[in-house]
Specification:
The protein is α/β, with parallel strands linked by helices. The protein has a single domain, classed as 3-Layer(aba) Sandwich (Glutaredoxin). The chain is globular. The two termini are 23 Å apart.
Length: 149
Amino acid sequence: MLHVGDQAPDFELLDQRGDPVRLSTVLRAGPAALFFYPAALSPGCTREACHFRDIVGEFAARGATILGLSNDDVATQKRFDETHRLGYPLLADVDGNVAKAYGLKRRVPGLPAKRGTFVIGTEGRVLAAVHSELNMNIHADQALAALAG
């Protein structure tokens, strides 16, 4: 898994509208909070995504963009966004290559990526890494704290 200080791998994935999103482009506008979740619309991932949604204004106040990523396809990401009015990009890492690059791919084939959050600074370095499979709320809270200073 990536750690604080590591260079974050750049990537481009489609969001829930089918539009390409490139990390390096997002970082030109400010830092990013990338949160990887195992499955859209599942109870735990819904709690996590809604917590990010509920404090999106605090991320915006710090100039940060939230990006959610999972192995779900564009249509599922769209349904997830529409169902819960998330309002930030949900990226379809269908083949799991981005999760693998960030060290979150599981060794057992067929299982979704691990839950993890990375705060990426404008220079592309990891400012914070949050790893908890069970405590969904700490991801947004710790990412926001890392942006505070």
